[in-house]
From TrEMBL:
Family (UniProt): Belongs to the NusA family.
The species this protein was found in: Iocasia fonsfrigidae
Protein name in the entry: Transcription termination/antitermination protein NusA
Keywords from the named record: Cytoplasm, RNA-binding, Transcription, Transcription antitermination, Transcription regulation, Transcription termination
Gene3D superfamilies named in the record: 3.30.300.20, Nucleic acid-binding proteins (2.40.50.140), NusA, N-terminal domain (3.30.1480.10)
Alphabetical list of InterPro entries matching this protein: KH_dom, KH_dom-like_a/b, KH_NusA_2nd, KH_sf_prok-type, NA-bd_OB-fold, NusA_N_sf, S1_domain, TF_NusA
Amino acid sequence: MNIDFLHALDDIEKEKGISKETLLEALETALFSAYKKDYGTKENVRVDIKDKSGEVKVYTSLEVVEEADNENVEISLKEAKEIDPKYEIGDIVEREITPANFGRIATQTAKQVVMQRIREAERDVIYEEYKQKEGELITGTIQRFHRNNIFIDLGKIEALLPPSEQMPGESYEMGSRVKLYVVEVNADNKGPRILVSRTHPGLLKRLFEVEVPEIFDGIVEIMSVAREAGSRSKIAVLSAEANVDPVGACVGPKGMRVQAIVDQLNGEKIDIIEWSEEPAVLVANALNPAEVLEVIVDEEEKVAEVIVPDFQLSLAIGKAGQNARLAAKLTGWKVDIKNQTQYDQEKAAQTEKIEDPVSFDRDEDQVELSDINIEEAIIEENQDKEPEV
């Protein structure tokens, strides 16, 4: 190796972000292994690369003893004194043992090591970059399909969009750009593995952060999200300022903000409701667009009994129970919906049951009140009669 090689390492450091010291350390380690392999020595060797000239030297470490029995690891005190009079027994002496043709080996090894370290470093850099993006929104280009899996080109690396994370009914075309939610980033021998999603509730949340400045600035906060991807979603928002309507901010002028998100989610319907710390109010809001007459909450069981007008029952429940299901997910409460007629009938039945007189069945241990009255009447009648002579 020569000075030009060191200049090349400087260029790699600038372009790839891999420090020159890291490359030299890796190269010294590789040359150490190459020396051991080619020369089969058991000596304690050390490879040193001069950082100014690029010259490669191999040194062996020898312990100073009175008389050397093993020249591979020991040196006599007399020989050590010839090198430097200061050496004493127990000191370590380094002696250069660089082979004549080691420069050729070093050159070949250097190329392999540097290329390998570049690949590893690039993988590490990409991993760290995307690990920080877990839970964030990214944009990629659909690159290829394989067994229902979609591979997304992110520029430096591919991401995987598996079938479970694809929106039902959404078509994906080669070369089209798509917004995705980064679910997780893992590292393996082949490089970072990035899992992305189009169905994750976090995708909806991040899209609102992009489209609604009040959310990005922290004035409006997203408190909860419930989503059935490709069909319908609900989002609960809260304003930190009294003069800012959180629902209106998310909807935007003429519905432009929410419509932009709907378009990016292939027409998925989105209900935006205002968050409340009062469970009854929150549950009533969550059942939007249905009208709610009353909400009776059971704090212990965390169950909310909801009464709606008769004509609103199907709207409150939703198709296949979707509206009620999303409301339960959004609020964290179990939601039991009843129409006004059903609720009134149940209430009347309970009242009727309470007002009914208590009755007893005839058996060996019980006697009806009517039997007791008859018996008493007979005794009274006999007492009133005069005795016959």
